[in-house]
Amino acid sequence: MKRVHLIVSGVVHGVGFRYNARRKAQLANITGYSRNLSDGTVEIEAQGTPEALERFIQWTHHGPPDAKVVSVIQNEINIKEESEFEIR
Questions:
Q1: Which residue among 20, 22, 23, 36 is the active-site one?
Q2: Which among 1, 22, 14, 25 is positioned nearest to 68, based on CA atoms?
Q3: What is the Cα 34 distance to its own chain's centre?
Q4: Which residues make Cβ contacts (< 8 Å) with residue 9, sequence separation at least 6?
Q5: What digits encode the pLDDT tens for the residues 31-88?
Q6: Is 18 labeled as catalytic in the residue annotation?
C-alpha cells in the first residue's frame, strides 16, 4: 500500500472534480478524500496499491471533461487506516 497527497490546480472548482475523483477512487479500491481549498485548488489524499494509485494520479492530470488542470503536485505520505474515499 502507498498513500499520496496531491494538490491539483487550474480550473478544478465547479467542474465536478471531487465527485469524479471519488468515483474513480471507488472503482479502483482507493481510499482517502478530496476537498476544495480556498485558493482554488483541490487537495486529494489517496491510498491504494501502487498500480491503482498510478492510474488514479494519471487521471488527476486531466480530470473530468470540464476541468483544465495546470499542475499536480504530488508527495508520498504515511498510510492511514480508513475504509472509503470521501468528499470533504
A1: 36
A2: 14
A3: 6
A4: 40, 41, 69, 70, 71, 72, 73
A5: 999 999 999 999 999 999 999 999 999 999 999 999 999 999 999 999 999 999 999 9
A6: yes
> What top-level class would CATH report for the domain 2-78?
alpha beta
The whole-model pTM stands at 0.96
Of all residues in the chain, what percent are helix, strand and coil, respectively (each to 5)? 25, 40, 35
87, β-bridge pairs: 34
Q: Which of 18, 29, 35, 75 is catalytic?
A: 18
Rounded CA separation 53/78 (Å): 14
Domain ranges of the chain: 2-78
Phi, psi for 47 (deg, rounded to 5): -135, 135
Question: Is 29 annotated as catalytic?
Answer: no
